[in-house]
Amino acid sequence: MRKEGTHRRLPALLLALSMLLSCAPAALAAETAAAMQLAKTEGVVAISNNRGRSVSLIEKMRLYSGYHVETEEASYAWIDLDSTKLNKLDALSEVEIRKSGKQLELLLNEGNIFFNVTEPLEDGESLNIRTSTIVVGIRGTCGWVKIIDQWTVEVCILEGTVTISVTDPVTGQTKEETLSAGERARCVVYPQDRDGDKCDILRDRFQREDIDGFVLVELKPDAPLVEKIYAESGIDLRDWPRDPDEWLKEDQEEVRRKLEDIEKALEEQDEHISKDPVWPEEPSAVQPQPEEEPFEEPVPAPTPQRLMMKITDDAAQAHLASTARVYVAASPAPQNNLANVLEVDSGLSVPAGKTLDLESGIDAAVYAPNTLQVDGTMRLHGGSLTNGGAVNITSANTLRVGGNIVNQGVMTVPATGRVVVEGTFTNDGTITPTQGATIQARQFVMNRPVTDWAVSGAPDSSGYYFLVYVGGGTPNPPVDPKPPIDPNVRVTVTFEGNGGVWPNGNGSIGNSLPSGATLQTALADVGYPTRTGYTLAGWNTAADGSGTAFAAAAPITADVTLYAQWAAGGVTWRYDEPTATLYIEGSGPMEDYPLSSVSIADAITTAPWAEYAAEMRSLVIEDGITSIGESAFCGCTGLTNMAIPDSVTSIGSFVFAKCSGLTGALTIPENVTRIGDGAFYECSGLSGTLTIPAGITSIGSSVFYNCSGLTGALTIPAGVTSAGNYAFAGCSGLTGALMIPDSVTTIGDHAFNGCSGLSGALTIPDSVTNIGIHAFQHCSSLTSIAISNRVTGIGDGTFYGCSSLTSIEIPNSVTTIGGSVFLYCNSLTTVTIPDSVTSIGGSTFHNTALRTVYYGGTQAQWNALMPNTDLADMYDATIYCSDGSITYAPTPRTTTAPPYSDLPLDAWYAAAVLYCRDHGLMSGVDATRFSPGAGMTRAMLVTVLHRLAGSPEAPAASFRDVPAASWYAPAISWAVQKGVAGGYGDGRFGPDDPVTRQQAAALLWRFAGEPDALRQSAFSDREAVDSYAQEAVDWAHAAGILNGMGDGRFTPGGSATRAQTAAILMNYLRSQAGEGDALSTASAMDVMCAPSGMVPMEDGSFLVTDTYHKLLWKVRLGAGTVLAGGETTQGLYGEPLGGYNDASLLESFFKEPWAAVPFLDGWAVSDTANNAVRLVRRKDTQTLNGKTGEGLTVTAMGVTFDRPTGLAADKDGNLYVSDTGGGAVRKITPQGRVTTAASRLSEPMGLCWKNGALYIAEAGAHRVVKLKDGKLSTVAGSGEEGLADGPAEQAAFSAPQGVAVGDNGAVYVSDTGNSAVRMVRDGEVTTLAVRDVSLARAGLTAPRGLLLQGDRLYICDGFARKVFVLRLG
């Protein structure tokens, strides 16, 4: 940054810079009323509201008009004015945000700002970036604004074309030039004594080397924007090898050196003025100057407690010449009995682009005939300003006074000027404002009025009064002052409520005060009247308003009676800070305040009182309010008490959501006829009996979600027709019987989930036609349930965890029973199921005490109905069918020792043999041997298939080599009848003949119903397969049921061994049941509730992350053992809550282990909900972001992850982490150094490192991208959400979360939103598996992590609770 000499008298010039796009207007894509928010921050960022108060920084916080954002060294802030207006504030910068309707403005007080407006503004909408000397009007372009010094502001345009108009306010001269992409304009304001023009525009072109680092890091990852910049400006950032992060670090280092130079210079001068707000411990060495003659009324003497020191304007001016921001600190001890005051006795100029801050406790005084010239920014953080000379304000937001202003001289405020006073503005002199100027204060005492200007009659919502323009001419010369306030003369004002009532309950009230005091002062002592259905509009000497109107600042010099004037209707609000009480007053409906966040988890009201959300304690809603607006008090966590008046008839959505501090009984007035979704969401402190008004006809979603303090019986009014999703979920304090009226037709998903206190018998009336999933989950005190006979389906988990339920009868209207319906109903012994039921989902009877099932159909129907994988859940139960009964004998599902002497547990077929044995399909050739290498005979295979079908009877088949009494005769008869197998044509069946591999495939294919093959097999000897078996072999291979010999051949005529047959049967059954390939047996898959990612381990087993149980599993050979993660407390619905603890493996806690990858001497695991990356070693876990542990030295790990998900490691041992919430990918070296590999991504998730490139599943952008040599490119995906194959750049995905890459360059993608697995190869996208095609029966639901090993693609699906495998090739 260049430094030039100081001009003590910088002229009051306005440089108006208006920028208009040369392109035609286009439709606005984003809603302009969208909420402004602080999208993210880096480093130290401070926020203050429009009252100058510090605001706590929260993620994606809402910003309001008047908010200030300030960054420190190496710190940045991203500001979204809406989704199409993105801005980034550079380090050591400050900006104020202003908004009025569709008019947006960023007031840059210091530093630099980058802007990217991606859509043209609509008619009537504006966006300006303003400094103390220029205004940049933006219509839809990209560039940055940089304050160089007090004379110069630089504007650079990256794309788009603008017109710049510069007007000299002294001469009226106007200059206009066109600025195109790639051009830079230096807008200069010259001193007053300069000959010729007083302002100018200096144009040139800039190169990519001129782009600041803080801008470059935003551009490089945005490939479309980079292309657009190149097309319009010729600036090529596409293949530029320069690392933006390194560029940024160089800029930061340069700034650091400059700050060090400034600090050193300040220390050498040994004056009590510093660049940074760190106050010295010793008194300043500045000597007091001789005191000048005081102005007419001297400054009041300070109180003894005040810190005392005298500071000269010369000292302040000297420091303003060398630094952009100067703080003046109060002396720590009295000195020469002089007040802490900055005395302007020779003149002081705050140049444009500079800031002068006076610490709280320091006043300022301007002595005649001297001038305080403010072209930049001046702030008194608590002190007062007394002006006896001249104060000239030349730019916006330049003078903020935390105390009072007493003006006895001349104050000039032009149209762009702004003066903000937190105390009282007393005018005894001359104020010369220009129309458009802003002068605001908590109170005005206009002892000398300003012609054509008046004080506003009422304060705004923040408590400020304004000096407003009311005339039509130019400001007039000063007039004679009004008589001063005389404390020796008292006057009496009588206030008549005129229909209103005062706080003391009376209709009138009086006040005695000194003559000359204002009406505002008189009202401050007695308060304001209220009137139901009306808003206070002013005061008049006549009740009907025909007399003299009195404004708030009007002086009262004689006794007077004033009548309140009322306006019908309207709702107002006010906040009383001493009592922390918000008052909603008036009558009629409140305004709605839609949430700015799509997630209720981090939402907060958008109402104007949002800044008090954390400190507000009480809410008073006046009787007369008829509706409470949407989200009006959402997120007011400090609120502890409120009452809803009887006048309210409607309660909007999310009105009190997340008001977790509310306590006491909840009383809903009986006049209420509507309660919106989420109205009392997570109001866990509310207590007492819940009474729902009789006029309610529908209970919306999440209305009372997690209101666990509500107690007593729940009575639903007779007129209610539906209970929405999660309506009463988590209301564990509700007790007694639940009575559902026969007006209800729909019960939503999770409607009563977690209502563990509801007890006794539940009757779901016949009016109900739909029951949502998990509707009564964890209603653990319900003892019996009668289901409506109009319900046709019972959804997943409907009665999950109803542990007191002993029996249930399914009505004959039901045709489907979902998965996990009675899971963990551990008292359930008896179930009645009609023959109308055609399907039962998995795990329906898992962990029950089931002993008796009454089934209305036949045994064969039951065998076809019950999922094979759930047979073990029926052990010890008897199923009574219409033609007899079925009993399943209990059999252990896992063993600790080999069950056969010839079955090594590490053999490739061991899991398959155990699986078939556990499911009763195959047994040993004797008690101790299985004979895995022996051939499988035709009789053996059809017998296995016969058992698989439930051993149905069939007419005897006649073969001369099949004795009627043989053990295999029934199976052969069945196989012939069903067309599964036939004889040789010579009267023989050949029961003892060995089964060839192609015969085994053909028999299984016929048993399965001869399904179509998804694709042709790629076996090198496919042509050798007999024609009758070719389609069967293609089907079995594509479905992952049957493999080749390892050398690319199938060998169709080779014998199928018993081990091979066991593997084929297991693969087939698990493909039908949803367990995927032979990763592990069913017993291992049962414990892994939500597999998210997996990685191979050295011993051939797999490490699998489980986001439900919060554990890491080691899975191998039919056994799943916990590798890491301890037992934690359970949540509202019995789910493990997880936690955070670095300890030994089984004592460590996770919250959401997402992915795993080898790293250092263990495995890195992304723990998403803990915002951490963990290192899992052989003995302990350790967190990588910021901690150091045994055997690992972690440096520079101060990065904070925001929902880390995908992981990958390169050949050099570097770890890559998808920082999903931060929209970036971070790189961690083995030495612990953290850098950003890619940024500006939209929810990056799955990662894969292959062939020197990092592949990224970008879920938020619905695409897959590749990072190589620092350049980001798209692998596949148009960016539009959908499901479409074809050319990679045109294909459509939906929120892909996983990616894997093969040696042949094929890219495999978990297309999570589409429940599909896709492949990108040779520029084309094809779908390998999708829920309703290839893996529909397996339940592919939400594929996530992928692992590619050879020709097997393992797919983790947490929603399906399975790990699938897809055979490739």
* Tally of helical segments: 13
State the separation between the terminal residues, measured CA to CA: 62 Å
Got a strand count?
Answer: 90
Determine the fraction of residues in helical runs and give it as a percent range: 10-25%
Sheet having the most strands: 14 strands, mixed
Oligomeric organization of the protein chains: single chain
Provide the gyration radius in Å.
39 Å
Helix/strand-derived class? Answer: mainly beta
Mean pLDDT: 78
Task: Determine the strand fraction and express it as a percent band.
Answer: 25-35%
The shape is: globular
Q: Identify low-pLDDT runs.
A: 1-33, 268-310, 332-339, 473-483, 890-897, 1073-1087, 1186-1198, 1332-1338
What is the secondary structure topology, with strand pairs?
Blueprint: E1 36-42, E2 45-48, E3 54-55, E4 61-63, E5 68-71, E6 76-82, E7 85-89, E8 94-100, E9 103-110, E10 112-117, E11 126-130, E12 135-138, E13 142-147, E14 152-159, E15 162-167, E16 174-179, E17 183-189, E18 199-205, H1 213-219, H2 223-233, H3 244-269, E19 273-274, E20 310-312, H4 313-320, E21 325-328, E22 341-344, E23 348-350, E24 355-358, E25 363-366, E26 371-374, E27 377-380, E28 385-387, E29 390-393, E30 399-401, E31 405-407, E32 410-413, E33 418-427, E34 430-433, E35 438-446, E36 453-455, E37 465-469, E38 486-496, E39 508-515, H5 519-526, E40 534-540, E41 549-550, E42 560-568, E43 570-576, E44 581-589, E45 618-621, E46 625-628, E47 641-643, E48 650-651, E49 664-665, E50 674-675, E51 686-691, E52 698-699, E53 710-715, E54 722-723, E55 746-747, E56 759-763, E57 770-771, E58 781-786, E59 793-794, E60 807-809, E61 816-817, E62 830-833, E63 839-840, E64 852-855, H6 859-865, E65 878-881, E66 884-887, H7 910-918, H8 938-948, H9 969-978, H10 997-1007, H11 1027-1038, H12 1058-1073, H13 1082-1087, E67 1091-1096, ...
Parallel strand pairs: 9-11, 20-22, 21-24, 22-25, 23-26, 24-27, 25-28, 26-29, 27-30, 28-31, 29-32, 30-33, 31-33, 32-34, 33-35, 38-42, 44-45, 44-46, 45-47, 46-48, 48-50, 49-51, 51-53, 52-54, 54-55, 55-57, 56-58, 58-60, 59-61, 60-62, 61-63, 62-64, 64-65
Antiparallel strand pairs: 1-4, 1-6, 2-3, 2-5, 5-8, 6-7, 7-10, 8-9, 10-13, 11-12, 13-14, 14-17, 15-16, 17-18, 19-21, 35-37, 36-37, 38-39, 40-41, 40-42, 43-44, 65-66, 67-68, 68-69, 69-70, 71-72, 72-73, 73-74, 75-76, 76-77, 77-78, 79-80, 80-81, 81-82, 83-87, 84-85, 85-86, 86-87, 88-89, 89-90
Helix pairs in contact: 1-3, 7-12, 8-9, 10-11
